[in-house]
Amino acid sequence: MQRWLVVGCLLVALLGGRTADSAAEPKGELVYAMHVTIAPAWFDPAEMPSQITPFLIAYGLHDALVRPLPGVRMGSALAESWTESPDGLTYEFTLRPGLKFHNGDPCTTADVEFSFKRYKGAGAKELQAKVKTIEMVDARTVRFHLHAPWPDFMAYYGSTATGAGLVVPKKYLEQVGDDGFKKHPIGLGPYKFVSHTPGIELALEAYEGYWRKVPNLKRITIKGVPEATTRLAMLKRGEADYASSMDGEIAEEVKRTPGLALVDTRHASMFWLEFPEQWDPKSPWADKRVRLAVNYALDRQAINEASCLGFCPPAGVIVPRVMDYALQTEPLPYDPKKAKQLLTEAGYPNGFDAGEFTPAPPFTIVAEGVVNYLNAVGIRVRMHTMERATFLSAWRDKKLRGIFMAAVGASGNAATRAEAFMYSKGTYAYGGHTDVDALYEQQASERDPKKREALLHRLQQLSIEHVMFAPIMDLRGLVGVGARVAEHQINAIPVHPYPALEDIVLKP
Description:
Layout: E1 2-3, H1 7-16, E2 29-34, H2 55-61, E3 66-69, E4 72-76, E5 79-84, E6 90-95, H3 109-118, H4 124-130, E7 131-136, E8 141-146, H5 153-157, H6 170-183, E9 191-197, E10 201-206, E11 219-224, H7 228-237, E12 242-243, H8 248-256, E13 261-264, E14 269-274, H9 288-297, H10 300-308, H11 336-345, E15 352-359, H12 364-377, E16 379-383, H13 388-396, E17 403-408, H14 414-421, H15 434-443, H16 449-465, E18 469-475, E19 478-481, E20 485-487, E21 505-506
Helix pairs in contact: 9-11, 10-12, 15-16
């Protein structure tokens, strides 16, 4: 076994500061106003979607063997060390000694195996197909044996690409069942569950036995507040200390208000348009010229300025530029004349009625911009909104039609994005192309980084040539931070939009 030298472990030790034994008693309360309604499904890692939004809660309640931590994209968490065999077929993890769940039960490799096997969220099919067996060497040592070398095992298991690495208590879950677990989740994270008021708020309390450190704050309340104006008002009145997804005029108001701060997050998020009917020969979207017209119809820079205050760079591909193996390419220019010409060539000189346009909530300003630009060239759409959890379920279950807007922030790399959205067998893919599938399958076993990068760049280029999507822009989520916060910790974890909750510091 060859030990992987994870420099981030040293950074975690330095940035983590105090140990659980030497830390001061947690004090104070904080309110985090989220832009979405909190879904109970997010309490259970087994159901984590290929989205970043639930990970604020997931990394509060739960923990993983390896995951993003302050100063490092992938650091040792519940595992004090991990190794990969020279042939790439075996990954071994050694748990930290003395780990205990919030209810006092010890954490062992039996919980690790149980958590992995019950996982059914994004990437589950890929993980289950590639992992041959899980060997519990002893109570603290576990080995994952693969069928063949798979360079993305850690990207799936040790990042926010999936929730497969998050560990839940086997004994407790078998006692209460899946539904009981959603009502009262038990984890290994820095905060333990206190209460959940459906549609309103989630209350968490510091877990002083957390391996990394005793959290600074005694209590955190996460509120679901879909209305941006309400989040702003809460921030200005001191009723909230964080307010996520502050865009457009709301973001400008945060910048203007003394005592408040507007922070742009540098995470792996992206806006794009999906054409789920492009594989239906009877649909207008089956014509590549129609999809290409959409790409020329969008003034991406104007949308960026209006919604993101210029922080969100226009995109030419759906893989965020901060990801490993991302193709760094420019988007097609804004050219409404060209868009109308393409529609005419496709047989729609007067445009056509494209029906409902469903955007990922709550990005109203971006969605309204898209609607206006599409209508301007003759692609007539009507806005149809959904609650976020409903939208994600409908997307996963292939129930969305016409054209819709995606907003995705899960981590990983270009391959994990390709698997979920470009590969025909992906969780969120409505179809695919044989050349894209072939490249995806070829790169999945390529261990040479340079060769793999070339394959993934070509795969992304093919997605552009096939006009599979209409990329809009990289999302730099804007967060409003209140006057009581001394150290907000946003961007302390690389390529991650949320702070380590245990590190937040309030003013005295």
